């Protein structure tokens, strides 16, 4: 059977390590499904993370929204059929993206919620940046749409996770010490009866592997990619 594929638009650079993973995973999944020498049709706009980080520290989400909306519009004008943000946190401005483009925007929390629901799990540990864990742009979708009970680590552990992400993972550093810290936090979640863990920062899957943990892990980047690939095959 001959297949046509839609063009996947990626907003990357937040950070580039996870953006690289998105590009690789999309092409590998497309080839696995279609076979032969098939690869994906992809357009990427990559932003300067220093600008995003500066506005994040200042809590200036309006400025971040402008940057990301401009990137989404560039993708649409270039011929993308859908838009993905290659990051979890910046989905905080997803409403601004939806209002300013006419092509589908694939929300990472919706894709993740579907994947967890398919596994029949209810009580889930969420790991990510402080804003991903503490604000409701992510947890509200999981709780309201997918009826999940989202558990987040304590204040001290949230700070540790946030620091590991910004000081190491976003710079391509993956230390054994940080991995052990993350695994200890997950073990605390297991003592609180969580049934699975969301790796709610796309770089976390490069630190924590599925076989490191005795409960199901949900690699949000991989789940996001799966959704995009399935939507792109006509």
UniProtKB/TrEMBL annotation:
Domain of life: Bacteria
Entry's Gene Ontology molecular function annotations: amino-acid racemase activity
Gene3D superfamilies assigned: 3.40.50.1860
PROSITE patterns for this protein: ASP_GLU_RACEMASE_2 (PS00924)
Alphabetic keyword roster: Isomerase
InterPro entries named among the record's database cross-references: Asp/Glu/hydantoin_racemase, Asp/Glu_race, Asp/Glu_racemase_AS_2, Asp_race
Membership in a protein family: Belongs to the aspartate/glutamate racemases family.
UniProt-recorded name of the protein: Aspartate racemase
Native organism: Flavivirga eckloniae
